[in-house]
Write a structure and sequence with these properties.
Layout: H1 9-14, H2 61-84, H3 90-119
């Protein structure tokens, strides 16, 4: 019982792992490598799953990225409003929100693709393919 693999969908999403085996990495380089953070294999190196289920599948990730970005803007704007007791100037909102969006854009790009493949594709976890 102790050596059995227990899948965690949330952990696999957080680590950007393959949705089928939850072992293979979806991206080749870490997100802080700004020259290559977008590079991802076409197939999983562990289970050989083709990530792009249909041509143009990841175009839908733009909408997921938009949702993540707007959510971040609303949360950050609300936090600034709460901290300043409603007395923040226009630039007190714009500068922190825009700078945080620029800094977090490699992560929103990645997680938009990961959310897209986990929640909007027919791919399911297969415990037989999981690396022990």
């Amino acid at each position: 019982m102790c050596d059995q693999y227990e899948p965690s969908k949330a952990l696999a999403i957080a680590k950007c792992k393959c949705p089928q085996c939850q072992s293979g990495k979806m991206f080749n380089y870490p997100f802080w490598n700004l020259n290559k953070f977008t590079e991802m294999d076409t197939n999983c190196k562990v289970c050989d799953l083709k990530y792009e289920v249909e041509p143009g599948f990841f175009w839908g990730a733009m909408y997921v990225s938009y949702f993540l970005t707007v959510g971040l803007m609303l949360v950050l704007g609300g936090f600034i409003l709460w901290v300043s007791n409603g007395k923040a100037d226009f630039w007190d909102y714009v500068i922190p929100i825009i700078s945080s969006l620029i800094l977090i854009s490699p992560l929103t790009y990645r997680f938009a693709r990961v959310f897209m493949i986990y929640f909007f594709s027919p791919i399911q976890f297969n415990p037989d393919l999981a690396k022990k």
